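seq as requested:
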Amino acid sequence: MSSVEEFRAEIRAWLADHLVGEFAELRGRGGPGREHEAFEGRLAWERHMAAHGWTCVGWPVEHGGRGASLEEQIAFHEEYALANAPARVNHIGEQLLGPTLIAFGTEEQKKRFLPPIVAVEELWCQGYSEPDAGSDLANVRTRGALSPDGSQWVVDGQKIWTSLAHEAQWCFVVARTEPGSRRHAGLSYLLVPLDQPGGRVDIRPIVQLTGTSEFNEVFFDGARTDASHVVGEPGDGWRIAMATLGFERGVSTLGQQVGFRREWDALAELARKNGAIADPLIRDRLVQAWIDLEAMAASARRGVDPSVGTLHWAAWHRGLGELAMDVCGAASTVAAGAPYELDDWQRLFLFSRADTIYAGSDESQKNIVAERLLGLPKEARG
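struct tokens:
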């Protein structure tokens, strides 16, 4: 048995032994559009994982991880998804900020922030998008300036679509710290605590189509953070922010595809049960969705460019939501209960409308593919 197979067997056995009792009730809970489900229970589960050394498996051992190889990380995420284990609550800290700090942070920053991520003691959110700077991240207007004594950064501005900010203790914020700078220049990557006195940070959940709220508006009004809480050099924030996005689209997406396969299997079974499979158009769309899912998995294992991968999975998942409504038929238009209780297929359809936006809009991803991968002329910009 190879080391990867041994690693896969180890995590599979551990999940089988520990997803029992109160944790067994968490199977399948949480995830996009369902982050409100059993949040405290999922937090307890993830801290249980941490106590047994199963968080941050891909991090170097010296930073609290297992030093797992790429193949072992793939095995971990696939087995976790195959076990139908609950959606992770610490994804942003573990998969985004942690690797960013390991690559670019100071030794002091690593000592301060990495251990609480490994232990799931501090949760993070991502302060990128703004009302006029969603996928156009270089257009951010949130400002950061050093206090007169140089001991703190003072942050003013607004972020939007900030996932799980209402549950997080910290936010990594892209802010403009050089007055008069434009676009990619003059940005800094700041680590900002969210629990601040005097209303310096105001977090307002946004009610979504699903009736739930996992996105938030975050307002900074003179918010403070230590002068040392800048990752990289001041003004170098664009480079750091782009590196974080690269980590965001890493191996954990392979576990996401296991979830997609589970959704396809359930939808195909529903079509058999309710007779929708008799419709040749429905049958053809189910087959095409299966083919596309297989192609997606093959591309991910081959190491496809993150923007190409995002375009593929976002369109596929949105299409699956549309197919689910047609499989369900007229029943898809009626809520399961008052006043607005959705079933899983209705929630999938509504939330997946955001897939081609929140992962970086399709339009921006296509520009990246055209300009950076294919070398086509840049789109004219004002």
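Residues 99 and 202 are 28 Å apart (CA to CA).
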